[in-house]
Amino acid sequence: MEMIGSVMASFVRHKEIHRTLTLLLCPRHLSGGGGLCFSDGRRKVDYVLVFHQRRHSSIRSPPGSSGLQDQLSVVSNVEPGDHEMHLIRLEFEASLVEAGLEIERDREFKTHGPSFTRIHAPWPVLCREAEFLKIKVPTKTVRAEHISTAVCLLLADFVKTTLQKLNQPFQPKVPHPEQGRTKLLSHCFSRDKLHLYNITSKDTFFDNTTRGRIVYEILRRTVCVRTCQTIGISTLIAKGVYDAAFPLHDVSETFVLHEEWARYSAFYKYQPIDLVRKYFGEKIGLYFAWLGVYTQLLIPASIVGIIVFGYGVATVDTNIPSLEMCDERLNFTMCPLCDGACDFWHLSTACGTARASHLFDNPATVFFAIFMSLWAVLFLEHWKRRQISLSFSWDLTGIEEDEVFTITNTRNTLKHTHTFKHGTLSHTNPITPKSAVEKLTWKDRLPGYCINVSSILFMFGLTFSAVFGVIIYRITVSALMAMSPDPEIKSNVRVTVTATAVMINLVVILILDEIYGAVAVWLTELEIPKTETNFEERLILKAFLLKFMNAYAPIFYVAFFKGRFAGRPGSYVYVFNDYRMEECAPGGCLIELCIQLSIIMLGKQLIQNNIFEIGIPKLKKFVRALKEKESKVQEKQEERPPQQWNLDYALAPFEGLTPEYMEMIIQFGFVSLFVASFPLAPLFALLNNVIEIRLDAKKFVTELRRPVATRAKDIGVWYNILSGMGKFSVIINAFVISFTSDFIPRLVYQYMYSQTGTMHGFIDHTLSYFNVSNFKQGTAPQNSEHGDITVCRCKYFAYTEQ
User: Fold this and answer.
1) Which of 197, 216, 752, 777 has its CA at 20 to 30 Å from residue 641's CA atom?
2) Rg (CA), the chain
3) Measuring CA to CA, which residue among 382, 366, 363, 304 is closest to residue 686?
């Protein structure tokens, strides 16, 4: 009664869940029927197949009949374009019945809207497939023997109790059936050893997740030989025979997950990883476990980053180089920033840039770069430890390769099986998927590999072209704004151009990200991988390579190339013979790198989270709701409560974890690769991830159909990518400190050139002299307001001309 009271109290806060549970947790459902069972109220719905079928008139099957012969009696009423698909469905479902599954169809044929075929796996089928798939199940409970002294036992209990009390506010309120001093041993299921398992009820021995996985394994290997020479439900969905296939959500479990995991108000709590793994499978459980470890370790990195930034704020007023740049009495007259239209200018006008540069370019930045390089390595080692712990507790230590999805890639099977043309079935290439894969040789795969290489090189060229286009924009707009007679526009040239150019970069990155994701899928399909695992690994590598170049190419340009090929006064480098190559700001390129990194990182996270992950799914859901209201079937369905399969079909399909991982991997690059220029990057990543965990959780629980539980030993190729980026971050941060930052030039000046051993005179030391009489014809300022200037200064160490 207490549990029911707490559940009903929480309904007031969550009206949508309240309405859904009210429809499903009706008396019929509590007795075994309703939205999760067959019409008899006893057999569970383990899987649902959905299809749309157009008919000239509403046809009813004989009451209480769902056999194939009864369905064949109405085939003649099906439209010609749907006739072959109907035959394929009949054969496919007949094969499922031969495999031992039980099927229930809608009693009414619908003129519009989806039709549902519900599948139930009886006990003999579950036992047979569990033994075949080597599914591990818990054996009977055994008592763990503890041999220890009473003092040690009391001390251990005291420490354990104290830690539990301290962690109690952060623990999710989820059931823990394995509490106590008991240990549940697991063993691969065997029909010959039923006495080893604690089988209290055959209906509940295999949970819903395992039942769905078993049914999917049968669906993916069921063959249609007589009608279309096709194997597996995925191929049938790709051909349009079925629209969707999915297991049903368990409303009681999703309610607990929503309350303790998918709410933003639970951001301070640990994730119920064991419950997530139990409901969604090991693959999704490992993703959220990895995301949780990554987010936790961002806390110390954020603290150190705040300290480094605070050091810059505290010392900005005592920093000698920035004070010298802001001192108008020194009167550093700088050479023009463009030819003809630009005038001489005083270095003191760049005082704000110099002070801002010190916030991110100070001695503490070097320490932070070293710290983050070590942090990346420690993060990977900590995850390895966590992964081994999860592998032991989730019984993944002995998992074999054939237990992981290594099935024939059904996407490419379509290229070698029957196709539909103009509503009719084409039998021009009757090759089974197995033989099709076996006959492929290196000659068959060579064109795909050639297209892959050339397409990737083209995409690289497209990325570099986009970066070059933004460079041209910066150069052109800078020159045009410098020609403006308005002094306010002239004084804000650098800020305006930098901000608008970064915004353009951000938009281009977001657009190309979507294009590259689709191109990576197409290129991987051309290679015709043999297995789903192989397909996924190749897809991840291609998508990561393209998106890595797309996200970091503008940052690499600012960090290592900008201002290094601009030339010097009297011998500038020009683009298209008209525009000078751009130079770094007077305070150095590191402040521009900081601006570039911060805007791209924050903008990418903000737009992806709010538009791509929240706005677009809600928009699709709204469009589907409008279509349902226009459907005639909707009017009939409003007379009775919707079933669970209707509610789940209205959700978006699950499309894999690759986009989720990719988003976090790119963010990991922002945090580790160029963090020396932006110490606050870990803090913003932490704030984003706290929301990201709950956003992804809410999406899995309320926005997506329930995915098939997939076993996985680890996070796969993503760990190799993380490891490579961790090693790469050491090199990149060293290069940023060496070439982009002014840290080394300041050390060289202080210990080799300074007369007093301090930084006094550093700015004068870094500025060269140029005789204005040596300007090329037409490049000198035309209307100078600074009077007679004979010598100007420029930041070029190796050049002096007086």
Assistant:
1) 216
2) 33
3) 304
Tell me which H or E stretch contains 138: strand 136-138
In this structure, the answer to whether residues 389 and 367 fall within a common structural domain is: yes
Query: How far is 593 from 560, CA to CA, in rounded Å?
Result: 10
Helices 590-607/493-527 angle, 10° precision: 60
Higher pLDDT, 177 or 609: 609
Nearest residue to 301 via CA among 245, 373, 250, 197? 373
Structural contact between residues 241 and 52, judged by C-beta atoms closer than 8 angstroms: no
Strands 768-771 and 579-580 turn out to be unpaired
Domain count for the chain = 4
- What one-character DSSP code corresponds to residue 528? -
Whether 415 is in a domain gets the answer no
Q: Residues of 716-740 as b/e, b for ≥16 C-beta within 10 angstroms?
A: bbbeebbeebbeebbebbebbbeeb
379 has pLDDT over 90 = yes
Cα–Cα distance, 677 to 740 (Å, whole number)? 9
- 100 and 152 part of one domain: no
**782 three-class SS:** coil
Tell whether the model's pLDDT for residue 2 goes beyond 90.
Answer: no
Collapsing DSSP to helix, strand or coil, 337 comes out as: coil
Q: CA-CA distance, 133 to 151, in Å (whole number)?
A: 46
The answer to which of 163-167, 284-288, 632-636, 638-642 has the lowest mean pLDDT is: 632-636
Nearest of 201, 197, 181, 178 to residue 189 by alpha carbon: 197
Written as one letter, the residue type at 81 is G
Name the nearest CA neighbour of 136 among 389, 407, 406, 397.
397
C-alpha 566/C-alpha 662 separation (Å) is: 36
Residue 545 CB neighbours (<10 A): 16
Tens of pLDDT, residue by residue over 451-501, are 888 888 999 999 999 988 888 888 888 777 777 767 666 666 777 888 888
3-26 pLDDT, tens digit each: 334 433 443 344 344 344 434 433
Same domain flag for 578 and 700: yes
The C-alpha angle 742, 744, 747, rounded to 5 degrees, equals 110
Report if residue 797 sits inside a domain.
Answer: no
Distance CA 7, CA 3 (A): 6
Q: Which domain holds residue 587?
A: 273-407+440-745
Are residue 246 and residue 324 in the same domain, yes or no? no
For residue 304, the number of C-alpha atoms closer than 13 Å in the C-beta half-sphere is 21
Cβ proximity of 781 and 788 under 8 Å: no
Q: For residues 749 and 762, what is the distance between their CA atoms, to the nearest angstrom?
A: 7
Task: Output phi, psi for 136, to 5 deg.
Answer: -85, 135
Give the tens place of pLDDT for each residue, 110-169.
656 788 899 999 999 999 998 888 888 888 765 544 444 455 556 666 677 777 677 776
First-last CA distance in the chain: 93
For residue 193, is it within any domain? no
Contact 258, 18 (CB under 8 A): no
Assign 78 to helix, strand or coil. strand
| Residue at 169 is within a domain | yes
Proportion of the chain in helix, strand, coil states, percent, rounded to 5: 60, 10, 30
Q: What is the dihedral of CA 316, 319, 324, 326, to 10 degrees?
A: 0
d(CA 734, CA 456): 29
Q: Say yes or no: 361 and 296 in one domain.
A: yes
Q: Are residues 336 and 212 in the same domain?
A: no
Task: Label residue 457 exposed, middle or buried (CB < 10 Å: 0-12, 13-18, 19+).
Answer: exposed
Q: Is 38 within 8 Å of 122 (Cβ atoms)?
A: no
pTM: 0.83
283 dihedral zone (left: phi>0; alpha: psi -120 to 50; beta): alpha
Three-state secondary structure call for residue 474: helix
**In this structure, are residues 656 and 226 in contact, taking their beta carbons and an 8 Å threshold?**
no
- In eight-state DSSP terms, residue 35 is G
Q: Identify whether residues 25 and 69 lie together within a single domain.
A: no
Do 235 and 350 lie in a common domain?
no
